Every structure is written in C-alpha cells, then in structure tokens.
Amino acid sequence: MKKVYIYDTTLRDGSQSAGISFSVQDKIRIAQKLDELGIDFIEGGWPGATPKEDEFFKEARSIKFANSKLAAFGSTPSVDSQVSNDPILKGLLASETLYVTIFGKTWDLHVKAVLKTSLKENLKMIGESIEYLKKKGRRVMFDAEHFFDGYEENPKYAVEAIEVAVNAGAECIILCDTNGGALTSRVFDVVREVKNNVNIDLGIHTHNDGEMAVANSIAAVSAGCVQVQGTFNGYGERCGNANLVSIAPALRFKLGFDVLSELALKNFTEVSNFIAEVANMKPNDSQSYTGKNAFAHKAGVHINAMMKNSKTYEHIEPDKVGNTRRLLISELSGKSSIIAKAEERGVAIGKNPDEAKKILKEVQALENEGYQFELAEASLILLMERVYSVEKKYFTIEELRVIVEKHVDGKIESEATVKVNINGEIRHTVAEGDGPVHAMDRALRKALNEFFPSLNNMRLTDFSVRVLDEKAGTAAKVRVLVQSQDENTSWWTVGVSENIIDASARALIDSIEYKFLKDEEGASKK
Amino acid sequence: MKKVYIYDTTLRDGSQSAGISFSVQDKIRIAQKLDELGIDFIEGGWPGATPKEDEFFKEARSIKFANSKLAAFGSTPSVDSQVSNDPILKGLLASETLYVTIFGKTWDLHVKAVLKTSLKENLKMIGESIEYLKKKGRRVMFDAEHFFDGYEENPKYAVEAIEVAVNAGAECIILCDTNGGALTSRVFDVVREVKNNVNIDLGIHTHNDGEMAVANSIAAVSAGCVQVQGTFNGYGERCGNANLVSIAPALRFKLGFDVLSELALKNFTEVSNFIAEVANMKPNDSQSYTGKNAFAHKAGVHINAMMKNSKTYEHIEPDKVGNTRRLLISELSGKSSIIAKAEERGVAIGKNPDEAKKILKEVQALENEGYQFELAEASLILLMERVYSVEKKYFTIEELRVIVEKHVDGKIESEATVKVNINGEIRHTVAEGDGPVHAMDRALRKALNEFFPSLNNMRLTDFSVRVLDEKAGTAAKVRVLVQSQDENTSWWTVGVSENIIDASARALIDSIEYKFLKDEEGASKK
What we know:
Chain A has helices at about 25-35, 50-60, 85-95, 110-115, 120-135, 145-155, 155-170, 185-195, 215-220, 245-255, 260-265, 270-280, 300-310, 335-345, 355-370, 375-390, 435-450, 500-525, and strands at about 5-10, 40-45, 70-75, 100-105, 140-145, 170-175, 200-205, 225-230, 295, 325, 395-405, 410-420, 425-430, 460-470, 475-485, 490-495. Chain A is of the alpha/beta class. The interface between A and B is large, with 125 and 125 residues. Chains A, B: Pfam families: HCS_D2, HMGL-like, LeuA_dimer.
C-alpha cells in the first residue's frame, strides 16, 4: 500500500471560515485531538499574524505530540525586505516548529497585480526565503499558491517557480487550487505533467468553490500526489477547503492507499462532531460519511430494501467511519419503517400493525403542526412509548409563568414559576435565571430533584429555534430543538408552539422525560 | 455548442431530504419557478405514492409550462403483476404527463436480494413496462438504478438491462449512482464504455455520499452524457443528490456546453434561495456559486489582493450566477477591510484611519462578547454609522417587560410592555402576541407607527438562536439573528445576551433601526 500523508489545516485555513473564531484553547484542544487520530501534519497557524497565533505556538511547545508534526505557516517575504530581517520569516522562526510551510506566488497575474514586482524578483524571493529557513534548521514545504490557474495561463513560469523552491531545498511542493475552480480532469492531467517534470514529493491543496474539492484531491493522489491538505468538515473561506472527512475514507477504503489507520477512521464521526462543537458550528447533517443523515434512510422502498441487505443502499458500512444507520420516520414512511424503528429500540410491535398505524397517524398529525421527528429522535421515542407501552408519565406541569423585565439602566431579571405534579405530589417552585429557559430549567429542577436525583448529571448543550413559515401569514409558529447530554450520551427533543417560551418548555420537558426513561431502561438492563 | 439537458428532481428525489416536506402548493410554486428558469425537465413526483403526489399532478395539468416538460416518476411493476393491471403503471398513466421516467434494477444483487426474482424476469419486467407505456403514447426515460455498482459486479447484466430498455423504446437511459459512492475516474470510464456499446442518449444521476456528485456528473457529461439529473441545493436523501447549482454554471462557463441560458444562470442565486425558503431549509451559506459566503472574503491578505484585482481570488465573476462579492469584517480583519467595507457603503473614511481603527476595536470587543457581524451586516452598518456618522438614534427603549403564562388547561398568554422615547416624546404601550417576540414586535409598532409609517411594510421573516458555549460553565449566552424584509430587500441583525428575550429584543430593535436608516438613505438618493 502506498503511503499518503494527511496535512490538516483546520486551525489555519479552516479558521478563515465565516463564523469560526478559535480561541488559543480551542486550537490546543483540536491539535491534541488530531494528534490522537494520527494526522501526519497539523498546520497550527500563521505566527505573527495576531497575538493569538503566537500564543498558540508558545503553548504548543509544552505539548508532546505522539503522532503529528506541527507546522507553522507563512509566506515569502514582503517585497524589498531582507530575509534575515523580514517579519514574516522572523515569526516563522519564533514559532520554533521543525516544519514550516510557506506559500509563494506561481501565477504571474498575482506577481504583477498583487505583489507588484517583477517575475524574476518573485522567483528570487521564493529561493532566498526557503534557503534561509533551511539554513536555520527548518524542514520546508512550499505551497505553490494558485498553481492550477497559473499553469493554465503561464505554465512555464508556474513550473519555474516550483523548480526554484525545489532547488532551494523545499522537500514537498504543494500544488494549490487556491480559487477552488479547477476541474477534476484538469487537476489529474496537470499533476501528472508536473510529476513527470519535477522530481520531488507533491502535495495537493484544493478549495471547494466548484464543489469538487474532494474529487480533485482524490484525482491528484491518483495522479501521484503523496500529501493531501484539507480541513475537517471542509471548513475554510468562501465555500471551504477540501474535506478530509470525505477524502481519507475514500483513499483507504476505495483506492487502497495507506492513509491513517482503520482505527483512526472509526473515530471520524466523533472527531468531526468534536471539531464542529469546538468551532461552535452546527454539524452538517448531510455531510458525507460522518453526517447524521449520511446513512439515514427515509424513502419507504429504500428502508424496505435496507432491511433485506444493507449493501443495497449504502456505499460503505457506516461502522467503518464510526457512524450508524438511521431509519427516519416521517409522513412519507410506511408502516414498515415504524416497525423497523421499534425493532431498533428492541420493542416487538411487528405483531401488532394497528399500533404501528396509530403511531404513524400521530406522527403525521404532529408533523402537520410543524413537529419534525427526524431531527428529534428522543421526542419520537417518547411518542412511541405513549402509544404502545404503558405510558411513562413521570410528572406533569400544571402551571407555568415566566416574567422578563428590562429596566432603563439595562438591568434584566428573569423569573420562572412552575407547579409540578409528581404522581400526586405537588411542588410549586420559583427560580431566577440568566434567561427564561435557564429560569424554567432551574425551577423544574427545584421541583424534580428530590424525586429524580440523576437530573444532576444532565445538562442542556444546545438549542435551535426555527420560525415556521405559515402560509396564512399570521404570527409564525416556532420549532425549538433542544439538545441535552449526560455522562453517557446526548439526545435531541422538539417542541412546537406559537410561543417561543412554550415551545422551549415542551422541548425541555421532553428532554427531562427522555432522561428518566433512558435511565430506567438502563437500570432494567443491568 | 453541444446541448446538455437539465432534468430537475428537486420535487421528487429532493423531497427525500431529511427535514423537507413539500405541500402541494410548495411543489407548484417550485415547478413554476423552474419553468421560468428554463429547466428542460421537471420530475414532479411519484404518482400513486401518496394522495399529495396525485393532487400535484392534477393541479399541474392546469398550468401551462412555457419551457419545461413535466415528468412523472415510477418503477417497473411489482413482481408477478400484469402491466395492464399494475398500480404503479396505472398511477403513471393517471398523471397524464407526456414524459414518464421509470427506474429498473440493473444490479443483479438488487434483483436477487430485494425483488427476489430471477435475472430474466427482471429484464422482462423492464421491457414489458416500457413497451406498455409507449403503447399508451408516453415518451419514456429509463433510470438504470445502481448502474455503476451493478457494472462493477456484473457488467454484462447491467448493460443487458439497458439494452432491453432501449429495444422497448426508452429514448434516454440514465445511468444512476444510486448509492453515491462511485469515484470520478470510474464514472468517466464506465460512461465512455457504455457510450461505445449502446446507441442511445445517456443521462447521469448521481448522489453525494462520497462528496463527489458534482464532479461525477461533470465527468459523465465530458464522457458523453447529454442529460444531467439533480436537485437544487443538492437536496436529497442521506448526503443529497448532485447539486444543479454547481453543475450548470461549470458546464456552461468552464466547459462551454449549451446548458440553460446565461440569463437563467444569472437567476441562480435567487432561485437557490427561493427553493430553500419554500423547502423551509436554512440556506447553505458556503454553497458553491450561490451561497452567501461563496464570494465572501475574510483573510486580510485576500481582501487586499481582491481590491487590486478580483480575479485573484474568484474562480468566476459572482455576477454570472447573480451573487455578489462580500468583504467580511471580523477580528482577523485589518484596517483595510473596514475601509473597503465603508467604501462599499459609499462612505469615504479612508482619509481618517482613526475611525477605521475605532470601528475595528469595537467589532473585536463585541465579537469577544459573542456577536458575529459576518452574519448580520445590518447590525455592523448601524455600528459603523454610530462611529463615523452623526448618530442616527431614531428611538430608545426605556423599559421592557414580557410575561408568559401557561395554565393547567394549556392556554397560554404573552404580553409585552414597552416605554419608548422618540426624540423626547414618550409612548408607553402594551400588546399581546402569539409569543413574546411577536408581543414585543406589536408593542414596539404600536409605539412607533405614528412616527414611522413605513414600518408597516416590514416584517420579520426568520430568526435563529444559538447557545454560545461558555467555557466557564455558567448559564450560556445566546445569540439571536433576526431576518427582516420589506418590499425591496432583506437584512439580518444580531443580538447577544444571557437572556433570549433580551437578545431577541436587541436584534429586533436593530432591524427596525436599520429599516429607518435604509429608508432615509434611499430617500436622500432620490
């Protein structure tokens, strides 16, 4: 098996994503995760760009990476600066990483229009800066910026630029599709032509502006590249960078390259979600391989076939990337989907199609109201429990009041009052909170804690609100999804109402009920 | 220029997306939009699958499509059924479309494991059903389901299946990568091989499970396919279908095929957003070509270069697909980005770098608190106005109170009280609403309407809430983004607070202030 190296730039190019802003600690956490995974190179940032970047490299020095090499990123010096006195190169050296990656211009348009220097001067800058970094004991990789665009317009110059980098001591030349618009067949041909002309390890760095970054990276490896640069979840400026989540499994499982280990790939779903969490980005549910829906089946005919043979509608086994198969229940589902879902839960309702029908009907009625169970499985499970099991009603809310007041000095108060009936025992509690949901959560816990102490281990981790576009034009309904987690797992619940407080309360109450149900089932299994 | 036909299946395969559920009216609206755009074929649905599908085809009959042909979708009959008596074929005929597309099995595994019939019987079903539909006056296209997987395992049978379809009268054979795992180079080779063996128009239908659906579709066209099936925004089951939004511009602008018109492509951003809106899906901001961030530049060096020559960081001109360039302001931005943004607004602050510095500092401070201006440009503009213009404070809120009560009978009441100061005049108003945000909105309008009657033309169209993960572990801050629109445009504003009501109020107030600012600027331009 031929080795292909993974060079992760989530911390550098990924942080250019609209909406991403990593703290130093975020970057440290991600770097450690990537190291655990066995990523070959981690590009940590651009030293000197902001104080945060410098702090990261300083903190990173005290970390012992078991598998990964940390690389610092920068560029050729500013025009007219001396290599020994250039702030960019100084920053790179101050980062104290063994590996440094610098980018240089290989597209003549950029040399003229952006650097505003001569083609010759640009080549000199590339050569001198690499030589200087080598002299200082660094191992240097060269990002040939805009290589594919440059190659189309002035192939001689583009190749000359990388030859200069090779002669100066760069040990890997990364061909970059910086603007992300290259076509797959061209990437393959150009890599092959360069490979035939330049005797050095080649890497590939693509962007997703044409929605082809993954295919382009794979074509480049097929044509001879031995390093792939990309980011987790495809984060990056504009349409993102090449998505390592889709590239690595394809290279190993479909093309037989030696890239990461099978064990590492089994952690891909977890790592993909972890990085989304640290980046504070909503996970992309339809992301290939690791998305929540990547192996989720909705159409009746598909579910039917899947139950006969999973290979019929899955391109790889979800388990290989740590993902799981899901059967979605919606108004399009047939009875067989409900039965399959029940079997997934270990409940045999197959013998009673009437119950399946009853559940389906209730799902359809609630989806008409705006509920969406595909996204909130815990609420669906509670609904199924109510239909075909003894109803597990742990508590009921009899009264709920929320008051929020904001005064002229900007001070805000939030207070929630709940009257809760726990099997006939009434608890009437009130609590303040940092907001109305927090206040409700605290008031509910005050009422329930003595009966259900396990509530202490559960916390709300995310919620989302969506205005449902009502055709009638009246004030819109909202759908609230709440994610909760305890020490073992996390789950989503849903609430719909014209009132955001009520919708939140519904989702919150479902999340607590699901916690109790889950604990009870766990206890009965032991 | 060689013609390539676009076959849209947003209404059929796209509706299999987790989270999508079209009403009949939704489907009609989308079909009309696609017709306006000049899409060649619109797959309307699977008649007979649900009453909704039948209703759609019934309603569609009264619509005169100017450009598009409507197609009904179905499959070969159930095993052992007579073509003349088969419910699937009956449904197709009842839809009364001239074009019908049926899928049949071309992968032997599916014939054996799912249909549980003989390979021979499957071929017979394909032939007989196409012949029957032809006899009934229909023009038939044949979706060769799982063709690429079938071709790898039993190429002889896969090709035999499509030969049967051709001989029975199918006028186009669509090669399907149903499981979405095919590699681009294989798609190219297989299409070419089939093209050399079968004398008929070929189409391509791919899924995105390997994140290569766009590249695979383009490779297939390069190898000889003349029809591309896909969906808008790549909607579809699991990881989605091939995204027409990325395919059509690449085929026309990069490969020179005759596909849609240049005018149609100029409407792509609008149509992509329209379909997301009808589907009630959040637009994918990083979507290629039409995403909000597709031409958004964040890195300081990029913005610098873009200002010199836009070709340096854009693979096509955004205008060609109706999109626009955006410069993102964030803590990574330099002063030059702020100045560029101000110039975008037609304000010359370039001469006063101190003001740019001041804005940048305030942006950084607010982003530290959790604000995000990349997503809420209207709030950024208000912030800039406050710094470098005469402050336009149209009104101030002196007191705000919201009460939500839910009673044992399920009845809910929401009431908001505001005390508003409009240039010294005080209005103290109270209103009920369907929820607290609605109540606040109404109370504010009650107070402001007499001063600003244009408020009547503005409405809130979307809002999103995000819990900001606070490292300290205290009750989380939330960020609320509000989208508003009037008859001319739409805009996003942002509010951050530990209190969801307060965060909503801040975003709401910004959205109203932006409306007034915008109206005033519009008026001064006239």
